[in-house]
Amino acid sequence: MNRNRLMTILLVPVAAASLAGCGVNAIPTAEENVKARWADVQSDYQRRANLVPNLVATVKGAAASEQAILTGVTEARAKATSINITTDDLSNPDRMRQFAQSQNQFTQALGQLRTVVERYPDLKSQVNFQTLMSQLEGNENRINIAVRDYNQAVQDYNTRIRTFPDVIGAKVFYGSKPKVPFEATTPNAEVAPTVDFGAGNTAH
Amino acid sequence: MPARILLAALLLLAAPACSRAQAAPPEPQPHFPALTGRVVDQADMLTPAEEQVLTAESAAVERDTKAQYVIATVRSLEGYPIEEYGYKLGRFWGIGRKGVNDGVILLVAPAERKVRIEVGYGLEKRITDPFAATVIRDRILPDFHRGDFGDGIKAASDAIVQRLRSKASDAEIAKEDHLTV
Question: Which residues of B, range 53-82, sit inside 8 Å of A by Cβ?
Answer without folding.
Answer: 81-82
